[in-house]
Amino acid sequence: MNGTRQRSEQEARDFTVVGQAATPVMRRFVDGLARVFRDHGYAQVEPYPGVHLVFNLIDAAAARPYHRHAQATYVVSVAEAPEPPEDVLLAAYPLMIRSLSNLFLYVVPEGEEVRVYFITLERGYYPIRSSFEEPARFFAELFERLEPLASSHLVINNVFDPDLPEHLWDGDEHMDEMRRASRKLGDLNLNPAPFPLEKLLPESDFRHVQRLYQIGGLSYGNLSVRRTEDDFWMSASGVDKTNIRQVGRDALLVKGYREEDDAIHLSVPPVVSPRRVSVDAIEHWMIYRENPQVGAVLHVHAWIPGIDATEINYPCGTLEIAQAVAEKVRTAPDPRHTIVGLKNHGMTITGESLDEIFERIEGKVVRQVPML
Ligand SMILES: [Zn+2]
Fold first, then answer.
1. Residues 57, 190: one domain?
2. Spatial CA neighbour of 153 closest among 338, 11, 366
């Protein structure tokens, strides 16, 4: 489907557990977690470089990173909160970053009960609703929410071709539309500031993350404008989306996704050392390709009450989120004017132009995404 790579269902999946479960609650939690994955056909193995899934048990007071050897290794760190935090996200997000995780599970004792929160890189967080006292249900729910994320496929390879025609080096009228829209994002206060990874991570860990994912910071949201039938301008990764200016640095021309190298291909000016394109380029590409009448796409971590949403909250930049969103757009009554909710994450909005999108959503957007 869509000419994109599909994960082979036969591929054997494995996981490993690193670190110590230091308390009875953690031991019970990790035993149950490992069992439910084994029951669903995952093999529990000793750590090795290509392992699919790592449960990294850490001490909330001293978050120890797990250094992946491959992008495809999905790291779930788990810590027990010393006491119920006032603000779960504020307490847990820095631990997630320091432990270099894809996902963080915060185990919070609440009186006789234990509540487990999922913390995502998109700064979403939500509790498991089943009770720890009913282990079968509890661990079944945990597996159901965790497994699709752990087995999702990130499309983060970029191939830069220095073939952008000179008359586009400073942009065109579509790039001007990007610049205008980016200021508007700032005016509406719709884009949280990029998250300062370098402030939370020791230098060696920061370099490790950069090497592995080629990212400089975590930023949220992205925008794009179609240029021709075959290409579109899109915001770069890790930049301030409220201040888009330079071609190749703040925004790039996306030619498309190629299955052969599992990469997004970009056309850049030969004079610029380019930044990477936003991780959601695969999603925007699918939408443009399937819907020739769509002229612009905006993705923000905010919400409009009452919108239709996807079922599973796949991470930004995965093939799975791209397919889920593209399907919602394709099957909408009017693909050119859709607002797709991404569960526990944000919205992707299509339009004739970015100006038209802003006109349509102005006054309706709330900053807080509902957590389900
Ligand atoms: Zn997002």
1. no
2. 11
Residues with CB under 5 A from ligand 1 (ion): 316
Measure 95 CA to ligand 1 centroid, in angstroms: 20
Buried b (16+ CB within 10 A) or exposed e, 279-288: bbbbbbbbbb
For residues 57 and 237, give the distance between their C-alpha atoms in angstroms, rounded to a whole number: 30
**Which pTM value belongs to this model?**
0.84
Same domain, 164 and 110: no
- Examine the domain organization and report whether 177 and 96 are in the same domain: no
Quickly count: other Cβ atoms within 10 Å of residue 154's Cβ.
19
CA distance 247 to 56: 40
Q: Which residue range forms the structural domain that includes residue 49? A: 14-150
Give 221 Cα–ligand 1 centroid separation in angstroms: 5
pLDDT digits (tens, 9 = 90+) for 64-92: 888 888 878 899 999 999 989 988 888 89
Q: Which of 348, 347, 301, 366 shows the shortest CA–CA distance to 89?
A: 301
Q: Report how far ligand 1's centroid is from the alpha carbon of 167 (Å).
A: 32
Is residue 7 in some structural domain? no
Dist. CA 123 → ligand 1 center (Å): 9
**Element (DSSP H or E) covering residue 127:** strand 125-127
Q: What is the pLDDT of residue 40?
A: 95
Ligand 1 centroid distance, CA of 347 (Å): 8
Q: How far is the CA of 314 from the centre of ligand 1 (A)?
A: 10
CA–centroid distance, residue 22 to ligand 1 (Å): 34
* 314 to 102, 158, 323, 362: CA distances (angstroms): 11, 21, 10, 27
Tens of pLDDT, residues 137-183: 999 999 999 998 888 888 888 999 999 999 999 999 999 999 999 99
pLDDT exceeds cutoff 70 at 193: no
